[in-house]
Amino acid sequence: MSIFEYLFGVNYKTGSEGILQTLKLPKIFAVVTQETIPCLRDDGTLGEKIICKNEYGERVDCPTDGDEGDNEDFNFSGKKMAPPYYADLGKKANDVFSKGYHFGVFKLDLKTKSESGVEFSSGITSNQESGKVFGSLSSKYAVKDYGLTFTEKWNTDNTLATDITIQDKIAAGLKVTLEGTFAPQTGSKTGKLKTSFSNETVAINTNLDLDMAGPAVDVAAVLKYQGWLAGANTQFDTQKGKFSKNNFAFGYQTNDFALHTNVDNGKNFGGSIYQKVSDKIDCGVSMRWTAGSADTLFGVGAKFALDADASLHAKVNNKSLIGLGYQQKLRPGVTLTLSAAIDGQNFNAGGHKVGVAFELEP
Predict the structure, then answer these.
(1) Residue 234: CB partners within 8 Å, gap ≥ 6?
(2) What are the beta bridge partners of residue 137?
(3) What single string gives the DSSP state of each residue in 272-339?
(4) Which residue, 271, 216, 226, 267, is CA-closest to 249?
């Protein structure tokens, strides 16, 4: 180890190059080239991403224009990320309170993929209190050349569902999904047409219930400006001829901080705060209140990463309900989650819940 490696804690090709990188001198000293390579999106469709390499052929962070600031989110290609959809506002804090917990159930999830590219997902959940067992099976196939995705679903309630999605083919950033369900035992059928569009400034999604008696139209939009977020969500019931939902939200979001407040139908108020304290600790605060009621729900949650494969989860609210969780990756593709819910106000009375979940994927 050289003296430069010891003092600065990095590995250098040459001493001078290392000093320039460490001191963060102007970018004119470094030669960075950009390349566009194909990649797979989360939904299985084919896309492209931009990577950057230095003069040694090693991947490095792509340079930016210098006016982005520390409050904006950027993806792996250095481009500004789109704002979240309305339903995802406050998601970072919600994940702290929801992920890593499975109270009162035994759960098994399995994911696999065939050689032809068909993805299969199955799950079974046993409720300890009711004794009911619920299972589901779904298959997903993507036709990448046409931006199409076909999804088939079935569950133990004997409900069949089919989703057809086309993305980025009609227009860049536009996703259209046609959903349909059918219950053979009752003959019940439902249909929905969903659309979503996003760019660097706005995220819009619509949901049209295909009910011949009178569809319900749900529209939501979120605007983003320098980290600030403003959203609105409304639903119009054509059968009754009136608006059945009027929700508003406001927030601020960076890579390691998120603030979210919302008002639903003028009477339900909520808010959350998310803070990534360090690489290992995520914290969240949540509050809910209904107008005309003195009952306020306030909770604090945290996630602590023990290492790359294990994490601890804990949360508590003002009703003394305590949630504890432990998540461990036993091996690549196998994750075990243990959780417990404790009623702190009636500790000796029992009624506490435990849960176990296994997740298997290739």
Answers:
(1) 218, 219, 220, 243, 245, 246, 247
(2) 122, 154
(3) EEEEE-SSSEEEEEEEEEETT---EEEEEEEEEESSSSEEEEEEEETT-EEEEEEEEEEETTEEEEEE
(4) 271
Residue 177: pLDDT over 80: yes
- Spatial contact of 316 and 328, defined as CB atoms under 8 Å apart: no
Coarse DSSP helix, strand, coil percentages of the chain, rounded to the nearest 5 percent: 10, 55, 35
d(CA 221, CA 192): 19
The pairing of beta strand 334-343 with beta strand 188-198: unpaired
Residue type, 17: E
Residue 82 CA to residue 86 CA, distance in Å, equals 12
Please list, in sequence order, all residues whose beta carbon lies within 8 angstroms of the beta carbon of residue 299, skipping any fewer than 6 positions away: 97, 285, 286, 287, 315, 316, 317, 318
pTM listed for this prediction: 0.74
pLDDT 10s digits, 240-249: 888 989 999 9
Task: Give the closest residue to 79 by CA, choosing from 17, 196, 172, 149.
Answer: 172
Q: Quote the CA–CA distance of 288 and 318 in Å, as a whole number.
A: 11
Distances (CA, A) of 88 to 133, 152, 168, 204: 29, 24, 21, 12
